[in-house]
Design a protein that fits this description.
The chain folds into two domains: 180 residues, 3-Layer(aba) Sandwich (D-Maltodextrin-Binding Protein, domain 2), CATH 3.40.190.10; 103 residues, D-Maltodextrin-Binding Protein, domain 2, CATH 3.40.190.10. 41% of the residues lie in helices and 23% in strands. It contains eleven helices and 14 strands. The strands form three sheets. A seven-stranded mixed beta sheet has the order 1-3-2-4-13-5-14, sandwiched between helices. Helix 2 links the parallel strand 2 and strand 3. The longest helix has 24 residues. It is elongated, with a radius of gyration of 21 Å.
């Protein structure tokens, strides 16, 4: 068996052990906030007439990792919003689930970074407004791929009836919602309501999905096309893609409903011009190799698609 598979197995085993230990710590706090000076996080900074927070965040379980990832963006926005009259301070808030985000967007969280379907669902609940998209790794859109072991006789979705598909997790767009929507609209079910039923499990991690399909534990896995083609060629050679979904923006940014039009306009321009600034370029590169922010093309068409997806998935 190829060395990459051995490495994947070892990493899979080690990570599983670590997660068992770390998980106990992570769930102690339902959210985490970090002030602009991460080295001085014991200092409490209070808002005043000339000091105010810019709070940005997302959903995730690894609060430390995500806070470090988002903090430079919060700092950058805060610095560029500040003037002689008011100093803005960047703060990161990591929510544990979508319900918590809905509560936070009730005027506590200024900006929310998320995959488009989840962000659209949240916008319906909190009245937040989606206004920008991110070009991660210089790519504005992505889709999901269905893949099987390269020795599998399955060559299309029709071969998946009564087999088991590995989804990433219930809040993942590319690892769950998008492929599930694709299956349902092609006449399949995962709840026994169709004669073309497919069983499913959650892996909670893309590497678990790869490992389970390569070792024939389950028949088919899903991931974003970007994640799939980032794995080594040796691992790719042990898999084959049998179908693709439609495309969606990689990630979008929402702002809270009660944000003033003036502040929303200023933040929008700061982010849209971030790639033209050397400091901004460095922050973008460290933010999962983001190339730039851009306005959403044909927003109504995207929102119509999201509405249909939520209806089909029973989420609205």
């Amino acid at each position: 068996m190829k060395i990459d598979l051995l490495m994947l197995f070892c990493k899979h085993t080690i990570l599983f052990s670590i997660l068992i230990i770390v998980g106990v710590v992570i769930i102690v706090n339902s959210s985490l906030t970090i002030p602009i000076d991460s080295k001085s996080d014991t200092i409490e900074i209070e808002e005043s007439s000339n000091k105010s927070f810019i709070k940005i965040g997302t959903v995730g379980s690894d609060t430390v990792k995500l806070s470090k990832r988002f903090l430079p963006t919060a700092e950058y926005i805060a610095h560029n919003l500040s003037n002689d009259d008011i100093q803005f301070i960047g703060k990161v808030i990591i929510a544990q689930n979508v319900d918590e985000v809905n509560k936070l967007l009730n005027q506590e969280l200024d900006l929310y970074f998320e995959s488009p379907l989840t962000a659209f669902y949240v916008s319906q609940e909190s009245n937040s407004e989606i206004f920008l998209t991110l070009w991660k790794e210089n790519i504005p859109n992505y889709h999901s791929v269905f893949f099987v072991n390269h020795n599998s006789t399955i060559s299309s979705l029709d071969g998946l009836v009564n087999k088991t598909i590995v989804f990433q997790g219930p809040e993942s767009t590319s690892g769950y919602h998008l492929p599930l929507y694709h299956l349902i609209t092609n006449g399949f079910s995962v709840d026994g309501t169709s004669s073309k039923n497919i069983n499913y499990v959650f892996s909670n991690d893309d590497e678990n999905t790869l490992f389970w399909v390569i070792t024939n534990r389950y028949e088919v896995g899903v991931s974003s096309n970007q994640d799939f083609f980032e794995i080594s060629s040796q691992l790719q050679s042990q898999l084959k893609i049998i179908d693709n979904t439609a495309e969606l923006p990689r990630q979008v940014v929402s702002h809270r409903s009660e944000m003033s039009p003036e502040m929303a306009y200023d933040i929008k321009n700061i982010l849209l011009n971030m790639h033209n600034n050397p400091e901004g370029q460095e922050i973008l590169e460290k933010f999962k190799h983001t190339a730039k922010y851009s306005e959403i093309k044909e927003p109504q068409a995207l929102f119509d698609k999201m509405t249909n997806m939520l209806t089909v998935l029973g989420l609205n």
